[in-house]
Amino acid sequence: TPTSASWLNLVERWFAELTQKKLKRGVHRSVQALERDIRAWLTDWNDQPRPFVWTKTADEILDKVAAYCHRISDSGH
Fold first, then answer.
1. C or N terminus of the chain, fewer CB within 10 Å?
2. What does pTM read for this prediction?
């Protein structure tokens, strides 16, 4: 089990991928059809693993978070 919370970002990203590829785009007429589709996607994911490619540097991400924090701290709430 990972000892830091950073691995949660990968878990969240994985669920976002599942949601985008199967849940939002799929048409399932039953729970069984949805389950079959998800299981097939999982099999493909595990048979052909692909690394996540980060498109921003850590500094870019931190700058964006800092700007967001500054914006919400000035919101008057």
1. N
2. 0.56
- Rounded Cα distance, 41 and 75, in Å: 43
Instruction: For residue 45, tell me if it sits in a domain.
Output: yes
Q: Looking at the domain assignment, is residue 66 inside a domain?
A: yes
d(CA 59, CA 31): 43
Instruction: Name the domain count of the chain.
Output: 1
SS3 state of residue 21: helix
Dihedral angle sign, alpha carbons of residues 44, 32, 26, 7: negative
Residue 43: pLDDT band with limits 50, 70, 90: very high
Residue 1 is assigned to a structural domain of this protein: no
